[in-house]
Amino acid sequence: MNLKEFKAGQYKQQYQYKSFSPKRINRTWIWDDPAINVLLEDANRILELFYQKPLLNVKEIEKFLSMTLRTIRNVLKTLEAEPFIVEYTGNKRNRKYVFDRYFKLF
Hints:
Blueprint: E1 9-13, E2 18-22, H1 35-52, E3 55-57, H2 58-65, H3 69-81, E4 85-87, E5 96-99, H4 100-104
Antiparallel strand pairs: 1-2, 3-5, 4-5
Helix pairs in contact: 1-3
């Protein structure tokens, strides 16, 4: 399925109301920009590390994964936009990131 053509579902008229029926998303996805593949691979590696150690800073990620600081910051910025990773120190330097949803389980 092409990502640009994806529709999340449709509204169906029920008795006296409309309900939303989502479409299945468990299928092969296609996108035109190959940079998305690289971003997904990098994000996957960083998320795997957060599962092992849910509280990290950029230098620790760099040490464990041998990734560039720029790549790490770009991925963390993307993951912060979603509610996956949260920066909790409030500092401009030496920021610590926590895998919030996973961390709250414990």
